[in-house]
Amino acid sequence: MTDKAFATQNFCTLARCRLPVVQAPIGGVAGPSLASAVANAGGLGSMALTWRDAPGVRAALREVRATSTGAINANFVLDFPVDAQLDAALEEGVEVVSFFWGDARSHITRVKRAGACVIVVVGSVDEARRAVESEADVIVAQGAEAGGHVRGDTPLAELLPWVIMAADGRPVLAAGGIVSSEDAERVKQVGAAGVWVGTRFVASAEANAHPSYKAAVVAAGRDATILSELFDGGWPNAKMRTLVNSTVRVWEDAGRPQPGGRPGEGEIIGISGGRPLPRYDSDAPTSQTSGEVEAMALYAGTGAERIRDILGAGAIVSALAAPWT
Ligand SMILES: Cc1cc2nc3c(=O)[nH]c(=O)nc-3n(C[C@H](O)[C@H](O)[C@H](O)COP(=O)(O)O)c2cc1C
């Protein structure tokens, strides 16, 4: 078996899935239906659990379990307190835990003791080295093309080979701008064990994204996304990639002013699950959101320009897994 084939087999064994395709954590846009559809298709489904309380974590994971027999990736963003949610996820027996945006060291022993596989998402080679030192099982190299919050500045093609070298034999998944079999084939050739994909799953039938958000991803053309810190309500000082929408355009026309001096700051532009949503809030619009959906944080990677349709999650998994099947 080649080293590349071994890395893929190793990932699938560690993460307990059949195909090396991960539906990346995509906030509230991925609910239990998407995670279980991906798992049922042989991939690894993820649930972003940072912003739920412990009973909410348990309820969400039980809902995935009720409709799927596959493994679940419980995701935590370390810019926020996650201890109670992580404990709840481990008690529910998740097979995989992934960490983003911070130092995972203090959590990893606990996760491994519970028997789960640890994935750490990195945006630089230094971060990859730290993940290896802290004994992560799998590393995700997130290129600057990625949708949502973006950890580093380096494009995937440049970052991936260096992270694979730093990973010292651990499987590395490629993330950022991957939407098709051709994209997956390209990263496979470089040595990626599999793919970690967000935006392509935003435009899936099972995603909990607001229908207008899904339509905006499908309609995105060239240069449709921007990397900024604009949608900072609830998560300040963090870079994210979103579609260029009316909020972005008005802010750019005003000369990109700093927080406190931005057009329409504080204005309520919608409601999500009963919570009023101010302009520049970091929550993406879901099926529970109403109001000026077009003006909200429409997270999307550069690959959005090549997404032309809303597909079932199973079809997306099969297409992305094609190079490995
Ligand atoms: C709508 C959306 C929400 C996201 N939320 C999270 C999150 O909660 N936790 C996380 O680790 N990454 C999050 N990300 C980043 C993804 O996990 C992943 O790195 C990224 O989507 C990969 O790039 P792609 O969108 O081009 O496929 C989010 C991405 C999107 C598009």
Automatic annotation (TrEMBL):
InterPro entries the UniProt entry points to: Aldolase_TIM (IPR013785), Dihydroorotate_DH_CS (IPR001295), NMO (IPR004136)
Keywords linked to the UniProt accession: Flavoprotein, FMN, Oxidoreductase
SUPFAM superfamilies reported for this sequence: Inosine monophosphate dehydrogenase (IMPDH)
CDD domains recorded: NPD_like (cd04730)
GO molecular function: oxidoreductase activity
EC primary class: oxidoreductase
Keyword Flavoprotein listed: yes
Highest taxon in the source lineage: Bacteria
Pfam family, one: NMO
E.C. no: 1.13.12.-
Protein name (database record): NAD(P)H-dependent flavin oxidoreductase
Organism: Bosea vestrisii
